[in-house]
Amino acid sequence: MKLALGVASLDEIAGRIRALLEIKSPEGLIEKLKMLPQLAALGNVFPKTISAKDAPCKEVVLRDHFSLDAFPILQCWPLDGGRFITLPCVVTRDPRTGRRNMGMYRMQVYDGQTTGMHWQRQKNAAEHLRERLRAAAGEASARVQTMAETAGGTTNLAMTNLDPANDRLEVAVAVGTDPATTFSAIVPAPPEVEEYLIAGFLRQQPVELVKCETVDLEVPAHAEIIIEGYVRLDELRSEGPFGDHTGFYTPAEDYPVFHLTCITHRKEPIYTATIVGKPPQEDAWMGKAVERIFLPLFRLTLPEIVDINLPIEGVFHNLMVVSIRKSYAGQARKVMNGIWAMGQAMFTKCIIVVDEDCDVQNLGEVTLRVANNIDPERDIQFTLGPIDSLDHSSRMPNYGSKMGIDATRKWAAEGFNRPWPEEIAMDAATKSRVDALWKSLGIED
Predict the structure, then answer these.
(1) Active-site positions?
(2) 227 and 326 part of one domain
(3) Which residues, 6+ apart, have CB-to-CB distance to 206 below 8 Å?
(4) Which tens digits make up the pLDDT trace of 224-235?
């Protein structure tokens, strides 16, 4: 991931985000001049559109006689429902604001011209489709409610009287983009921030875009393959099973169908894919990069956070370990609720909060603190709310319970009146004395 993003350490990117968040209005000419390099760098994050003749992804344009069978699309696991495109950058446009979104959603290949579109209920592309449905339904409240409760939360097969000229959402899919652009498709950005901006920030140069041939969308001009088409508002089809990053097969469910209208690609395109499955798999290090890079944004909302760890085996939405600088009673619970209120972090099933002197990257130390510091009845909190669509254990699809564990030291202000013991640690003088003995005993570092 460091190689892909062009840095020696992921903390470099986190540092750039932190510096951006700390920019203050300059006072006086000297301070304004000092800000010029920062402002110039910010100018490089905005995408720019280039002509089709300069776009490598337009070297071959297929409006007729195209098929996905031309590409080596994988079936990854024995019980998968078929072949899946696993590393697509899927571009849609918000019907209300016109703002573009780029997300990564697996696509099951049904045949050469159609695929499934795994738009989970809480994803931005699913909301774009719901917006189109609301407009097509004339904001009929009963129908809108029905739409929200269907599989994937995206569409409603019972709808009638759709305008044939207005019954679809346009979609474009880029396969084989540069690493920063691909990575930006998975980051938990707010809907107001376009992923092309994030990619520009990561690359420190603009993403070059080009207009599609058959849909009103812009796609990365240097991608290997572009797939254009649309999703109908009144069509669902069974999608799955799929061997997912949870380590289990997600069962077949109904999801929207993507119809192709055009394929463009480089003359000798490279088809890119990834394998997900029982962790650790390739996506594990993408998730760890998200954890490191976006820590400053967590701190923007919850400044008491010192560090976080999303263990790979917790598949990034089942377990989060958080260390905090505790300043008042009940702060650990405040942090839990704050995390559950933050975008995609709302799916976190289990949150463990420890004190700042606990290294959250050391799961042995975390286990010691949790096992010793909690009174289970007092320190475990349960709540109900949205759950990741891939969670097979929740009582209902997309809705279930979450758990928070307060493993911080307890204060008298929290009703704890017993003395809290000191953690065992050797004094510095003894450690230094023993360290000096190793060489004389013939034991080297």
Answers:
(1) 244
(2) no
(3) 44, 45, 46, 47, 48, 200
(4) 999 999 999 989
